[in-house]
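Notes from the 1:1 (GR / supervisor)

We went over the backlog. Supervisor wanted to see one worked example end to end before approving the batch request, so GR pasted a single chain during the call. The sequence is below; no edits were made to it. Supervisor asked that the structure be written out right there so they could see what the output format looks like.
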Amino acid sequence: MFKKEELEALTVDELKAKCKELSLEGYSKLTKDELVSKLLEVESKDDIQEPQGQDEKEELKEDELVSLNALRYCKTVTKGDVLGKFEISKDDFDKDEKIQRFIEIGFIEKI
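Structure output shown during the call:
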């Protein structure tokens, strides 16, 4: 997975970031050499804990999505400007009362 030379070229902060990405535990007080060793020990996916609460993203087809714009809501000339576009599944759109309410009051528009 990792090459020792590549890991040794990284800073302590970069090594800790890799440990965090891999959801490893007990790395915060380790020295650079200990961090390198810990990352080299990770040989299989079984050693890595899955991040909590992050499911695989479900891929939906175009006809299963609803596209929405989040709008700027203020009393200035920028009122109504699009802040961002997002998409949700048709099922979630139909069930989500908050989104329906935001559409009613003009915070969100269906596109």
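Supervisor's comment: Helices lie at 4-8, 12-21, 32-41, 90-95, 97-105.
Batch request approved.
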